[in-house]
Amino acid sequence: MRFAEVFTSLPALMVIIAFAAMLNDQVQTLWPMIALIGIFSWAEVARFVRGELLRVREQDYVTAARGMGLNEWRILWRHALPNALRPALTIFAFGIGAAILLEAALSFLGYGDSNLRGATWGSLLQNARSSPQLWWICLPPGLAISLTVLALNAVGEALSERR
Prior knowledge:
Blueprint: H1 2-9, H2 12-22, H3 24-27, H4 30-39, H5 42-56, H6 60-67, H7 72-109, H8 121-129, H9 135-162
Helix pairs in contact: 1-5, 5-7, 6-7, 7-8, 7-9, 8-9
């Protein structure tokens, strides 16, 4: 988990911008950007799942499974992991919203797929920045980002309430 803490301590936006600046043309496509966002997003989910597994480990059904003589791997795969991943869906929903915001910020700053200029929400906002008096140009992408992230947060909250 110390390795995950290193990733959580680094500001993802700054590190991705540094990688994009160092690897100019290689990172300026969609798949390397998705990979970089994924590399800096996994640690929070891993920490949460670990915490849930530590909580589930103390539950009565895991103790009963140990008492029945099941081996640790079977307890993990059949009992602990399914019960730990159910609450993790909430974190996944919030993580997807954060990834969308990070991609929009990178596109707004000019880092992203050069073939998708004008097609991503961040690059549309960057185009609107050149003429601030035309406020209606930035309204659709800004609303789309806001509504998408709000919807994903609502899904995450609904999943956590369902738990």
